């Protein structure tokens, strides 16, 4: 017999599904709204516009820049393969700029050095000229009389004091990369080879949909072409990392989803032995669709990492039809609508308990967890609606599953063995004691680990090339930097100079390879004027310059040069950043915002972040920005918050069970997920797996799944054996999906999958021990 409401349910479901499809089609009107930008999954920094600008500058190289080193075969033109690579990149149309040769306007550079010889003079030279000009004069005399001393860009008669030469030396890039006059390229000697530097900027962002893959393919072709001529190529850059991450995520989501689907098809065909039973997949498809549409509606796009984890939703969403169809093992007269009525209370309570677990994640500050929570919650609602409203209509009219008898016999034998074991109190007590001790021992071995690197799994060849480029060039950028702010530009440069004084000892000790500070490029305007006036005054003291005049240089020439210093125009930060010599400092200047000047000090080759502690202490307006460290600390805080949410979800589930099934059922049902969670934690400890935010997230889901299994074993609709069969089918499909996640190459996903797989396994082990209370 079919109720009137059951005739309307399929129509309502189809109407709702049509609306979801229309919403999905509209969301895809400009292409697939799928993102691979890892930064979208991490919490954003506090709303500080200057800091956000600084972080955007730091991340810019990750999104668009590529660095390549090309080595020619022995005896060949060192720059020819690099020029070939630059030509291929230019022709590809993938890059907005490609640079292999430095087209330096020497005349303009000379003019800039001459005009800014006071502003760009290193701090030590400025100090010596101001306080001890005689010593400076002696040193300059030694330079002039040394035939092996290198000369500068300007002839000596235009720079008797050697100020432009000193400024030019200070502006040269450090490390192993040097300008080669013969080829006009930047080169580095390493391992007996000369490596030529090629820099490029991509037209599209690294996180655009198709661009990174196109760049990766282009570089593969370039490598083949260069290798054919005996040349070697090393390339590193954010677009390549994005391409590798996207390819891995797409591949894993494809084979995890495909593997789970094939496994579940086999389970359905083997245990229900009807082709129509495959319609149980429809709730899964509906769940994935509604989850994706909900994510895009809330966040504007869906991340590939959410898709990978969401693919495992297959194993959870299919539980609804599994419990319903599994009742055929205990109901010889199984009919679609009547069977649904009997399991509907259990399905609904199970859905509510699962939603509690998922929704709790939405309150964590991590967008990654929030997005997954929205995807999973919406997906489960869609799967539930399809199971309850549409599936019975497709499987009515006398259709019945054909249960596989060996599975029912296995369930009956398992329950019988459990009854026999339960009757032996002594053995049961000893087993419980051993299990409790093992659980405590396992949990005590757990190591807590919160690290952003768990989100990444880059191919070894890419990491090796990046490491080689760092070793050859001597430059390995770090994510940590100092943000310096001041009321005006002069004070900004002075504050940067104070930070630089604290960084210099780190460089000498080898803890830091180098750093870039605007104070290395230009001095404060007031200091420029003061030094100019001081040198002009020294024009009246010929004795100070006697070491130079003793070489035969007329003092009148020196006097003219010294007097000209007072009339030199002041060089501002913007003025100093013009020209090719200032390229390495160009991104350091953040400008003036709301009456506050701001700039960065970036670090290269940092070996230990701990050495930076205390450097900003006592310096006004100076902040150390360590985004990766902040995220790791936030991981730890969120892990604690997730644990608190887990306890809250248990409380909500307890209240729900208390209202629907009563007090006796509540503690019995909750005992299953609690025991499964404890055993899963112990197993992680024995397996040497760390407890991370992601494994805790997985165990949060286990609480919902464990409650699900316990409810069906408690209700025992169609008998305990039939309920156990339904749980076995549900656990098999869940383990197929989450078990496959455990072998993902991304540590975070693998950790999550392993935790859920262990939790589901232990839930399956403990749920059959649940029995309803004996009636009085």
Say what oligomer this is.
single chain
Alpha-beta classification: alpha+beta
Poorly predicted parts: none
Judging from the principal axes of the Cα atoms, what is the shape? elongated
Largest sheet: 6 strands, antiparallel
Estimated radius of gyration: 35 Å
Q: How many distinct helices?
A: 30
* Beta-strand content bin: 5-15%
Write up this protein:
The chain has 776 residues and is of the alpha+beta class. It has 30 helices and 13 strands. The strands form 3 sheets. Strands 2, 3, 4, 5, 6 and 7 form a 6-stranded antiparallel β-sheet that branches. Strands 9, 10, 11, 12 and 13 form a 5-stranded antiparallel β-sheet that branches. The protein has a two-stranded parallel sheet with strand order 1-8. The two termini are 35 Å apart. The model has no long low-confidence stretch (mean pLDDT 83).
In a nutshell, what does this entry contain?
By secondary structure, the chain is of the alpha+beta class.
Give a topology summary.
Elements: H1 4-27, E1 34-35, H2 49-64, E2 65-71, H3 80-92, E3 95-99, H4 106-115, H5 123-131, H6 133-145, H7 163-171, E4 178-180, E5 185-190, E6 193-202, H8 211-228, E7 232-237, H9 238-272, H10 281-299, E8 302-303, H11 304-311, H12 313-317, H13 319-326, H14 336-361, H15 367-389, H16 391-394, H17 405-423, H18 425-444, H19 460-473, E9 477-486, H20 489-509, E10 514-516, H21 518-521, H22 525-538, H23 546-549, H24 555-565, H25 573-576, E11 589-593, E12 596-604, E13 622-625, H26 627-660, H27 663-686, H28 693-715, H29 720-741, H30 747-766
Parallel strand pairs: 1-8
Antiparallel strand pairs: 2-6, 2-7, 3-6, 4-5, 5-6, 9-12, 9-13, 10-12, 11-12
